[in-house]
Each structure stands twice: as structure tokens, then as C-alpha cells.
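Deliverable D4.2, example record:
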Amino acid sequence: MTAANPVAPSPLLGFGQVRHTRLKPARNAFSYPTYFLMLPLRSMRLHGSGMLAHNRRSALSFYDCDHGDGRADCVSWLDELLLREGVEDASGEIWLHTYPRVLGYTFKPVSFWYCHNTEGDLRAIVVEVNNTFGERHCYLLDRPHYGQELKADKVFHVSPFCTLEGNYRFRFMHIDNDGLKKTVARIDYDDATGPLLETSVSGTLEAVTTASLRKALWRHPAMTFGVVARIHWQAFKLWRMRVPLISKPKTPDTFVTR
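Output generated by the structure prediction step:
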């Protein structure tokens, strides 16, 4: 295609690692291999999803209704959310970093919506968080920059071993080194006495093809089940270390925290 008609972005798979370190009152650190989707949602609306199963059954698939308010078009949900929050110039590409459905099952602890303006500049990031109680909350980061540390007060209950005190520190990086594309999303949590958790998910991106889908499923045939199993295993380890349990607080009155 010519410069006036650039090649449309296509769905990507990221292969990498999840890292998690708890610093206190007992130290607990782990990492494990993972994969995730990186989806250009506006492009998929116009040009389709290629080899990725979109809103249809497959061993590995993506469904709009797994996000937002559960509607069949997650882009319209996000556009409405941004407009309600006063973000009126994010009509460029939306890249969604999220876990797929695997064998029909999904659990997405956190998804990242990278929202751009029409010039291709990053305008906002929406961090969509799910807990194991079936609840969901979004943190809106306004006018972010890659590599910049961004902060938001913690208002949503995720772990029974953490209070709602303190704040999150976010940092996002996209690296393109001679065509080798990598992405890093880091979330650290500080409670009232200082740093408590350090977490990140990172990966090298490649196109969704028959070969990359096969690699994802062969390497991690039950990836979603593994995510849930690891969450409960790490919780059991913290309980064995006598880390205090926190009662579940009330769900926030608002769905979006800026």
C-alpha cells in the first residue's frame, strides 16, 4: 500500500512473563510464563480479526462481552466511558492488552486499554481490574506518556491480604528494537507505610497466525485455569506465612477512578 493507505494494524500475541513480589510483612516472589492478546480494536471493526476468533467459539478467542458492561461492542462502551470522563479526543486507535478466552473459559485480573488520538499520540489509558468476587473497576489515567510513572488512589478490593490504603504506581513501556516489539506494564502498590507489592507483565509481540496460536495453546493449553490456580496457591502460601486477612470492604460507589 502507499503512504496514503497504510497497512492496517492487526491482532498480536505477546509471549512473556508475569512477575509479582510482595515485600512485607512476609516476602513472597514468583514469576511464570504467560501470553496475552494485544488488539487494535478500531481496526478490527473495519477489517476483521484475521486468524483470531472474535465473538465466536474457538480454542483461543476474544469476546467483547468479557469487558466493560458486558455489551456486544466493547469499543462503544469505552468511547462512552471516555466521553463521560471528559476525554473527547481519543478517537484514534485503541489497543487492548488482555487475556483471551481459552477453551471457552476466561478470567482477566487486569486489562489495559491504550487510547490514542487521531494523530497516533497516547491520550488515555484505562486499567480495567477484575477480582475473584466477580467485581470490576476501572482506573482512568489521563494524558499519560510511555515510561512515565502514573499514580491512582487504590479504591477497589482485589486481594484479601491487602487493605484499601495507599495508591498504585503505574508505568508502561513499548519498545521497538529493529522490528522486535515488546511491551511492559508495571503496577506497584504502596500502602500507608510504603512499598508493598511490585508486579509486572511483559512480552514480545508477534502477529496472530496459525503458528503463533498453535504455540500459545501447545505451551499453555490451560492458561486461564493456571492463572486462577496460581492466584489461589499464592493466597494459600500467604496464609501459611500468617499474613493477616482483610475483610472485604464495600464496592466503590463509582465505576471509574481518575
